[in-house]
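Entry for the shared binder. Reason: the reviewer on the internal report wants the predicted structure included alongside the sequence.
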Amino acid sequence: MRIALKEAGITDISRFRRFWVSEALTKEVILSGISSAKPFAEYDAVAAQGFSRQHADWLVGMNFSRLMSIGNPSPAFSVGRVQTAVLSSIASRNDEVQNFVPVPYKALEASIITDNNQIFSSLLENPKTAKTAFFEDDFPYLESAYKNCNSKPIDSVSVESLE
């Protein structure tokens, strides 16, 4: 906003106020936001920080991207304040995927018959994780659930071991 005002030649921002809400834009929220809008001057420090980040992004991106590309086998190797952090997160997640070690688990599925003779399947949810996977330390609970299911009017119950 400040860049647009500057480009438009507007230098006196004493009458400008900042409308800021983080809720759904209902009539009440908008009216409340307008009535509590603060003068632009209260955001001078935030604006200066934003300009600094913008310039740093440009300088770092332009200069370090070129520097990192020299002698690098890839045709383009870009660097930037935000981009580098995002790429680091992606690389970290890629390492997790590459080094993933599967852990065996089991799931309990029951085919349940209703009073109308309709059959539907249901997976037991692990109360610890709210997921349908049961790991080795959960097997006693799973075995107990399996025995209880088999003593009820259920068509079939199966425990599948997955890896």
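Summary line for the report: The CA atoms of residues 89 and 95 lie 10 Å apart.
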